[in-house]
Design brief:
Strand order of the largest sheet: 3-8-7-2-6-4-5
Oligomer: single chain
Number of helices: 12
Largest sheet: 7 strands, mixed
Structural class: alpha/beta
């Protein structure tokens, strides 16, 4: 198991100072419903490549309910459900006004940053079920109807849309959601060949996104941090929401030139995704934001450099 050095969030809002030779950028790929133990047994060359080039921890015990609504809310906002107030898949009554998603917060802090999200689970990007989780203030939000199209098709269309943005525009921060593994586990079980196949398919889509990033004409001048995480696992028979290890164990992956490869006793968790993504772009959390997350998986700039 890999781990990283811990850099606590500070009270000061900092912007990148130009000490890095390459421009920092972030791509967060969220894959819904991946069991860590099943992931370890599936052939996933693209995720493996990322894990070998950064921090990968697959034994995290989530502190959010093992339900997609609160878990994705925690990942994207950097706070636990007691603050964002989403405790199930009904997003009504959320507190996103005080605790927005990290793309929205980036836009508020530095509107010059270019942000986008591609989402095929409706509450993440639309008003369905009390959403959206991802706010309207980001530069581009692409909603794909995974419910209507099916999430296998929805994920493929989402990645195609993301590739177009990565290829034809100059994004600084992006979030791409993949929902099919969760659906496959619900439909066929958490140990089924259909489920393992859905994880392999997600890995192939991760590979397509990586190739799009690396094919950018400015790639050699860019410092991409790739974050990949899941929200919860599944029981053997499929389904989640309980407290079994199969449901609560999740993984955290931070990869790229600025990712740490040092070991530490500190372990990441879901709320660290948003804080780490912002930190890579030069924005350190102000204590007035009351975030729960920490910077996890980035190099200590004083000791390792960027």
């Amino acid at each position: 198991m890999r781990s990283s050095s811990l850099i606590p969030a500070t009270a000061v809002l900092l912007f990148a100072t130009g000490c890095a030779e390459r421009e920092p950028k972030v791509l967060f790929i969220g894959i819904d419903g991946v069991r860590s133990d099943v992931l370890a047994d599936v052939h996933t060359p693209n995720i493996d490549e990322l894990a070998n080039d950064g921090l990968f921890v697959d034994s995290i015990q989530t502190k959010a309910q093992t339900i997609s609504g609160p878990a994705w809310s925690s990942m994207l906002t950097g706070v636990w459900p007691d603050k964002h107030l989403v405790v199930n898949n009904d997003f009504s009554g959320n507190n996103y006004a005080e605790y927005p998603d990290f793309l929205t917060r980036l836009e508020r802090v530095n509107p010059q940053l270019t942000t986008f999200a591609v989402l095929d689970w409706p509450p993440l990007g639309t008003t369905a079920s009390g959403g959206p989780l991802v706010g309207e203030g980001i530069d581009m939000k692409i909603n794909v109807d995974g419910e209507g199209l099916g999430y296998r098709m929805g994920d493929s269309l989402s990645v195609a849309a993301a590739i177009m943005r990565l290829s034809d525009h100059d994004p600084d921060a992006a979030f791409v959601y993949l929902g099919y593994p969760d659906v496959a586990a619900h439909d066929f079980g958490g140990l089924s060949p259909e489920y393992t196949g859905s994880i392999q398919l997600a890995d192939a889509l991760v590979g397509e996104l990586l190739r799009a990033v690396r094919s950018r004409p400015t790639f050699d001048k860019e410092d991409w941090l790739i974050l990949v995480c899941t929200d919860h696992g599944h029981r053997d028979e499929g389904g989640h929401g309980g407290k079994s290890p199969e449901e609560t164990t999740v993984f955290y992956l931070a990869s790229g030139p600025s990712a740490s490869r040092r070991s530490t006793n500190a372990a990441p968790n879901l709320v660290d995704v948003a804080v780490t993504a912002m930190a890579h772009l030069g924005v350190t959390a102000d204590t007035a934001w009351h975030l729960d997350g920490r910077i996890m998986g980035l190099k200590d700039t004083d000791r390792e450099g960027r």
